[in-house]
Prior knowledge:
It contains six helices and 18 strands. By secondary structure, the protein is an alpha+beta fold.
Amino acid sequence: MLQVNLEPPEAAVLAHTEMTYLDYFPTYIAFYVKVPAPVGGKTIVTDNLAVTRALSKGGGHCALGDKLRLLGVEFSRHLSCELVPRKEGTELQSPDPLQYKTWQDTFSTSDRDVAEQSLADSGAGTLSWLESGGAVWRSTRPAFSCYPSDEVVGEIFMSQLFAMHCAGNSLVGSVHEADVKSLADAGLLPYHSRWGDGSEFSSEEMAAFNELHQTSYSEELELVSGDMVVLDNFRWCHGRSPYEGNRELFVAMSRPVGRTTAYTPAGV
Ligand SMILES: [Fe+2]
C-alpha cells in the first residue's frame, strides 16, 4: 500500500482512471483514509459507463466519441533531472513548481539506457532527452477499452486525457493558451494530453471533457478516518479537490490487466 502524496495539495487531481496512459493497468484501486484533510481534499468519482453512453451513438457527445475512437490520445510528461528541498525537512520538490517528479524516480534508475529499455520492453512509449538533463515521455493510447464485465459486454471509455491536460493543472495557470502547442511540442509542459495526431483539444472539446469528467456523471464522497473505498478502475474515474492541512490517504491496486480493444485508433 502506497501513500498518495505526489501532487501538491493546492492542485486539484482531476477525474481519471488509473494508469490508462499505459496499456497495462489495475482492475481495482482502493483508497484508505487515515487522516482526512481539515479543508477540502474530497474524493470525486465519475461513472465511466455513463460517460461511454454520452460518447456513443445517440449520446450528447457522439461526434467527440467518434473522434476519440479514430485518433486516440497522445500523452506526454516532462520529467525533471533533479529535485531540491522545497521546505526544511524531508519533502523534496523541483525548483520549478510545474515539475515534481524526476525521471530517475519515475523509472527507479539513474541510467538513461535502463530507463529507455524499460519503456521499450513494456511498449509504454518513448523517451527523449533534453539539454536540461530532463526527459520527455510520450505515448499514444486508445481512449476506450473492452470492459471485462459480466453485466456489460463492449467498450468503455477509460482515459487520463482530462487529468493529464495542462489546463487542468492549476500550477500551469500562467501558461497562455497560445503557448501550449509550442511548449507541448518541446515537451516542456509537466504533463499534457492531446489528440493522437498531435493536434490540441479545442476549447469546446475541453469544455465537453470537463462536463463528462467533473459534473454530469460525478459525485463527491465524504470520507472520514477509517473509511476505505474500492473502485472498479474500468467503471469509475477518481480524483480529489485541492486541500489544506494534513491529509493521509493510502492507495492499493490489484489485478493488473492488459488493454483489449476491438478496434485500432488511427493515431496509434
Ligand atoms: Fe489516481
